[in-house]
Amino acid sequence: MNFKNIILSLFLIISIFSFSNVNSIIEEKLNESSNYQKSLENFVSTNYSNSIYNNWFQPYLSLSTNQLSGFTITEDGVSDIGLNADINIANFYGVNFGVQIPFEIKTEDNLDFDLKKENISLSITYGLKTEYFSNKLTKESNLLSSQYNLEEVEDSITTTTFKEIFNYYYLKNNIELQNQKLELLQQKYEASELEDEKENLKKQILNQESLILSLKKSFGTINLDFSENLYIDSKSRIKNITENDYDLSIENRKDVEALEIAKEVDKRNTNLWFLPFLPDLNFSFGVRDYENWNWEFGINFQYDIFDRGERLGESLTRKNNISNLEYNEKIDNINRTINNYKNNIESMYLELQIFEIDYENLIEDFQKSEILNNHGYITDIDYKLNQISLELKKLEIENKRNEILLEKLELLNERGLYIRGELD
């Protein structure tokens, strides 16, 4: 393996290691976030609820003792044990199926199982007010909404982490340069013999000290295991995301899809506005003793003749198509936010152009100062101050570019991109 391949391999290893640091930092912040834990708990709960409602083919199995014989121990030993095995299939389009299989365990001499075929029963129940499809859609809407909330918390923490990495880099280098500038100003103050110049330099020193304290205060709020590789890799990752051509549509955002489903639920509720005024009817059908085909059909009902307006209130709620209004408001807010991000990015690019023009001017000034310094027309201190001004402007340009990257990342997120998912 030649030297070039060795360097390339080391670079890849460092990149992978630094990326794992990015992920580990984000993962640590997620684990420490109560908001994330609540969102995760809510998502797991809604996902489980949705799964239970839709997986009707997964039966409930239970085993119970017979109410009459049960399980009894006497001085003569253990009595015969009567058991019931119940199999229930719930929510098959709102219909519940149940099968009960009774059997008895004989305890005399050797254990013996006696299946009570004549007592096997089948039951089918259905409620008139059962709104299977509306309930199904509501659970799907809740699941999408909870998933969106979870991903939004993840993306918020991910974006905040990148901001901290960029801010750490900017503040760290800014403080170093400002300290160098302060030291040069102090040297210039000590070397000056003119009172007016010394007074002016004193003000500059005080302003410089105040600026450094402010920068250190901001720097102290960032708790981060920083490294140059972490910064380089983070910037590279964001560039890859922001430069990709994603096929995004706000209508495909999970929160928008959830509201779209909620609109369908509201439509169904509106069509059944009279449902609260109907009696609670439950139909049941059962079969016992299959050999003789003993069956029964039953109807149970309850009807409130007078109430305090609860049914009217529920009916009016059904008629209010609030989800449609929420959907329109959501779309308007998203489009407004997207436009704000686009305007911010455009404004940032204009600021960047101004910074770059200033930087070009500073380069010219620095080149002139270099010539003047070589010929002894300006001091080394003034030359170094010009050099620091150039470095500070260069740092400002890099920071502005980072801010643009972060703003683009926020824009993609608003358009529906799951940022955290792009990092895995």
From TrEMBL:
Coiled coil regions, renumbered to chain: 172-218, 324-351, 385-415
Keywords annotated in UniProt: Coiled coil
Superkingdom of this protein's organism: Bacteria
One term of GO molecular function: efflux transmembrane transporter activity
SUPFAM superfamilies found in the cross-reference section: Outer membrane efflux proteins (OEP) (SSF56954)
The name this protein goes by in its record: TolC family protein
